[in-house]
Structure formats: structure tokens, C-alpha cells
Write a structure and sequence with these properties.
By secondary structure, this protein is an alpha+beta fold. It contains two helices and 20 strands.
Amino acid sequence: MMQFAKTFFCIVLSCNCILSVLGDVPHFYVSEFSEDSHGNDGNCLFGDVGTAVLIYRVEPNTCTRIKHVDSATDKYVSVETDGMGNVTAFKNLCDGNCTNCPSTFQDVKLGSCFSIFGQGSAIISESFCAGSPNLQLMDDGFSVFYYSNFFSPVTDCDIQQEGSDDMLYIRNYDGAAECSLDYIIGDVTRYYSINATEEEGEMLYSGLLSCTTTVCKASSCVSIVNLTEGDCHHDHSVAVKVLPSHLLSQCRSSGPPASTRPSATTISPGESFGNGSNDPALIGGVVGGGVGIALVVFGIALVYRRYEFKQRRALNVSYSTVKNNYGTASYNDEGLTTDI
């Protein structure tokens, strides 16, 4: 009996592991796109001068504060799911408990662009992507990656580290030798100056970024000097890196831009921006989980049958004359018959 109990316990653990594979995802990436001139409502346009994206990571069904000074963002959001990794709603502009969310979007599909009405557009994904499905790149442009965390200094140019709640804000530029207006969002105004030079086949960037005054002094800006493309630079508790805009990612989309209630249609090639309903990995996981559960049931029945056989032998009962719900068998046949 003890052996049967141990075997059954192991099988139950295996079943739980299989079911956990089919459960909720550990986190989502939310990308909120904005455009200085047109508002970017619903199209996730990105790559041209004046376009920007704020990328942050949230756990499912968890009320999360998103505070990002440079984009004038301070709100609570929640990505609601059905417990199986499928997004059911994006709660936006919520109170501190996410019980009152006047800007809530239903039927949001992973990887599908949707409008957030006057605030721009957004995409929710299971995977990180520094770009957009709707790239519009400029000639000789470059993109500045700003890594920040309102609550603690950032340690690296990476928001994908386990447990990280850093945020990534990417803005696209065409260069400005003199201190110039960068953008105005609400009561936040920023200025910048930046130029690029090529040295031995590498691009080097120098300038003053995210300045809070019109004179672009180092004391009020993020300063970079001959920063090699892709290198991470720390300054004023933030981190930055600069890349040519053509290195932005063409993220995979699971559907065309939608204005209110997006639905997945086609998959375009490119880097992953989340799993849709026709994702091979998801389908494989479901099929594999079903096969695993069937094997668990088969194993339980087989273990019980062998346990019962041993018990009958211990009682000196002629097993070949015993009939039960599993059929009959002789000693010689035992081990060859499953009768499930």
C-alpha cells in the first residue's frame, strides 16, 4: 500500500507540472506608442522622427503603478487574463487598486495594435521587442534608448532581467547640433542636442539629452561623449544607449491596427511580439499537455492493477479464477494485459 501511495503521489506531481505549463504566463510587455505631431491613435507607427514608445513589464492580473517622468506618465494599469495566458482586458488609468478603471479595453489580442484614445496606441505581448509591426524608418536617423526607474536607480540597459521593473523609453531623432526643443507632453518639456560621427566603421554619438532647460547644460541633461552605438552609458541614475534607427526591430503582428476591439487575423514575418491563437508553440503545448494527462491516467490504472495483483497473491487467492472490473488473467498473462 505504501508503494502504491508513493507512486500515486509522484504521478499527481507530474500532472500538476503538466497543467502548470498550460497555465498563465509570468509577465507581459506593454508597449505604448506616441507621435509628437499626429497622436498615433491606433496605428503603432514608430521609427520616424518624433515617434516614441514606452515599454514596461507587468504581471498578469496585478495592479501595477507605471510612473515615468519623461513621458509624463503616472497611472495604474492591469493586464487581465483568463488564467491560461489569454488576455481578456487591458485596464488603464485605474485607481490604486485597479477597481475603478475608466479607460478599459476588452478583447485585446496579443501582438495586435489597438488605440488608447487620445493617448496613442499600444501592443501587449509575451515577448520583448524594441520596435513595432508598423515601422517607418528615416534615412540616417538614430534612436535613443532611455532606461529608467522612478523608484530606484537602473543598473543596466536591460528590462528583461528577472524581477526587473525598469522601463524603456525610445525616441527617434535626425540630429540637432544646437540645443533644440525635443518634445512637450503635458507639463513635461525636454530639449536636446546630439550629433553622430563615424570612426573606423562605427558610429559615435555625442550630445546632451533629456534636458530640462533651454540652454542644454550638462547639469540638467543626460550627457554622452563619443558613445559607441549599442554601448550602455549611466548618468543621473538613468542609462542610455544609441542605435541607428535601421536596427529597430520589425516586430511580429497578429493583426492589422484596430480602433476599438482588435482581433487577430494574420501573422506577418519578423521578430516575435507575442503569441496569437495560431502560435505553433501554444498549439504544441496544448497537444503535449493532453497526451501527458492521458499517460498519467494510464499510469494510475496500471499501478493500481499491479498493486491489486500483489495483494491477491499475498492472500493466496488463485488470481486466474478471480473476475473483477479489469477482466481476468492468469499468472503467466499478468504483465501483458492492461485491460483499460
